[in-house]
Records
---
Amino acid sequence: MPAEPRDRLIVALDVADLAQAEPLLARLQGLVTTYKIGSQLFTSVGPAAVECVRKRGARVFLDLKFHDIPTTVAGAVREAVGLGCFMVNVHAAGGSTMLRAAREAALEAARTLSVSRPLLLAVTVLTSLDRSVLQRELNVPLSVEGQVLHLAGLAKAAGLDGCVASPQEARLLRGAFGREWVIVTPGIRPEGSGTDDQARSLTPGQALRAGADYLVIGRPITRAPDPAAAARAVIEEINRG
Ligand code: C5P
């Protein structure tokens, strides 16, 4: 669990290019310490996205959800370590050999480069999937919660640090996997902000009380008229616990 309240906030940098990212980073400088870079920005500008955050002294959660054969995922994780990422994720559904390969690659690359190892997180069941998709399309006979626990267990056994989870799943995961398991939750909406397309959101305080270590928040901050004020309000709420 991070020591500083502000280090528990991860702002989702869901923008198309550096021209949109730079002004946001400038407005949030000194306030936000961690950013999530996902498929859109990374596909658009590549490693320059990570460099642009890191050169401002902030940390990067590289949210590319690697899911491939073990060798390929290991290679991708190695590159992420080389970019100096603070957090990286992979799909637990890639299986335990892939998960162990990801962990080994993170450890080995960090050792070779003499840098700290990124936190390696698992993605379990995407929140866009519900029980009927799991059962009818993916042929998974479990409930969403059952499958989340199953896949998180696989990730833990393979030595991963934690998982990305909906705030609704945080309590269950914290109970099942204990204090050391890192839980990162998107789907957060501060009191009074709209829900956008997040169907079942919790406030920062609710998510923390449910057991989240880190909160991923995008649009309520990035699209606020005053992003710094919105970020400050979330950090204050994190501070209150
Ligand atoms: O703007 P908003 O706060 O909804 O952004 C949330 C971020 O977290 C987005 O980058 C989204 O892709 C990601 N995310 C999510 N729900 C998940 C997993 C990731 O909203 N279950």
Note: The longest strand covers residues 59-66.
---
Amino acid sequence: MNKCCAVTLPAKMQDVNIQNYINGEWVAPTSGAYLKNYNPATGMEIAPIPDSKSADIDNAVRAAKSAFPMWSNMSGVERATILNCIADLIDQNCAALATFESQDQGKTVASAAAIDIPKCAEYFRQFAKYVTEGIRETESSMKLVCTTSSINKMVPSSQRATTQHVASGVAALITPWNFPLLMVCEKLAPCIAVGNTCVVKPTELTSVTSYLLTHILNAAGVPKGVVNIVFGSGVNAGEPLVKHRDVRLVSFTGGSVTGAKVGALAGGLFKRVSLELGGKCPSLVFSDCDLEHAITTHVRGAYQNQGEVCLSASRQYVQRDIYEKFLDGFRKQVCQEVCVGDPANPKTFYGPVVTKQHMEKVTSYIRLAQEEGAKVEFLVNPNDPAVMNVSADGRLTIEGLEGGYFIAPTLITGIKQSSRVMQEEIFGPVVCVAPFDTEEEGVQLANDTQYGLGASVWTEDQKKLERVMRQINSGSVWGNNWLAWDDCMPFGGMGCSGTSREHGPWSLEFYTETKVLYTHTI
Ligand code: NAD
């Protein structure tokens, strides 16, 4: 059971043959059909994706259900040994996984190797530690222990009440494409650490690293049926998984429109459901901030990972007296720092967006801003030798990668607060910047959204900082920072950004059922 073998991953993309992973075996989809898949930097076809359907989901859920009694009855220490082995194998294969992630998703190899892949390993180690050592108070303000005695006047003194957190059963884990492997591991680690078994349905747009993970799971000795990964579309594979009668719990990360469907389906069938959805994150930059720090962080916040980040700083409100200075500094910083191009080149800041369809969606918002009379600037680095041409709607032609889906770093000003460009999630390298006058107006603009995922506030006045941070309706608010991360803290959104909190102890809470045991002492 505790074997941790080395794993040999395919050497190159042409060798990747994506198959479903069900009951510890690699199997073709029952329909025999596959979806096309493209490298976004070149537009060339890469490993096709199984177009799985209900029959494949049935097989995977059956395998997960039959593995559940064995896995949930194993000790935390035994499960943790396997989780730590998964983490070690991810670390050992970081460079290869980062390269495949980049070729499938478009993000730079450097960012995948520095952020995505190491974080995957960290999640497995974190939850291995939780189920063996428990949670220290310093790691969280929420106390979650396996068994707590309660002192309650309503309970007779001869009776002891204790709570017990037990694994839920078979979980459905459904993930998006912007951090492909990271999103899978963020859910998978806590899910199986506490004893659930699962069926993972990764996004059909970036499935390669989830497939490679199956080889790591196998080498780490994950017993058959504990983790099943079924590839395919949301309609053909995702929906049957959410609806499956033997699935007790659904953890979904994706867009808000899909989240509403998944939430309605799962909720109507009384499943535990967690929805981590989109964002249109505001930042409020006051005139008394450290402007240089604010500008460099806002450039990163707008364009990191091609702007394909749910927490992207996509609405930046700047106090009027520093508005022009901020914009000048922002333009200068982008032109100095942001090179767009080959994601394998270490000098590239960001690569292509994920698909041709997504490029068309992003540029449709750019055209809308132009039609509405906003000022639209494409901040192309004059020293970026790879950029051959910028189209009227911001598409870039990159030398040697003419078939890729590249978009210029786009700055939009003079756009109305009510515009769809300001209100909807664009999920690309496009940022809207607008002025505000008073603190009250700033807060009102920041909160004028259907979303509530993340926000940041910039001022050197500590009292104002705390006052404003408290008034913003977001799951996470950063003060003089953006995306400083603590995995022991809860993550999730308000409104259309989601209904739940995961990460750290909050994941342990979500992935378990809470029971109360009333014991009568004789
Ligand atoms: P999406 O909603 O299109 O798809 C997400 C997943 O749901 C995919 O695996 C897809 O196949 C599946 N799916 C689609 N329809 C389904 C259905 N009817 N039933 C079940 N499953 C279905 O999202 P996307 O375009 O892949 O991802 C981008 C979105 O994800 C953005 O809105 C982004 O903000 C959001 N996101 C949120 C977070 C967060 O933690 N809040 C993190 C990353 C991404």
Note: The longest strand covers residues 159-167.
---
Amino acid sequence: MSILKIARMGHPVLKKRAEAIADPTEPKYHKLVADMLETLVDAGGVGLAAPQVHVSERLVIFHVPQSRMAEERYKEAGLDDETGEVPLTVLINPVIEPLSDEMAEAYEGCLSIPGMMGAVKRYTHIRYSGIGLDGEPFARDAKGFHARVVQHECDHLDGVLYPQRIEDMIKFGYNEEMKMRMQADMDAQEGEA
Ligand code: NI
């Protein structure tokens, strides 16, 4: 296994539509997923799409650990933690279907845009389907943070980065600055109560 170089915003590989994978059981995809997993763990992210490691093919990996980061983002989104932990998932040639019109705004980051975060609206309840590394099709319903992660990762396969979905650019900035401001806003609200 090896840690792969992550493409950053501005690189053409992040802007184009990735190709469908004909045979996910080919050994090269096992190696790709092993390397992507090592890269994801090293970078400390929750998801990674193949184009982010310079492979323009329709494959994403993600997991939702019961970590503090996930819990904080649930709170930001005003969602409960009904979806809980999601094990590491390899999703190939994914299709996303919203199960309701409801959308929620929450802050996202991306390993291709290090050090920054922005508020993005996503569907709160989706069904996603695709193929696993074993070549078997599967489908899952997802809500909240889980649904958000899948929508973010699958956007990468269509050449879309989260800043393209930010509606109010005042909600885009450097992590340290944004977190300081959020804390100040929370303190002010507590003061008013
Ligand atoms: Ni990303």
Note: Residues 110-112, 152, 156 surround nickel (II) ion (CB under 6 Å).
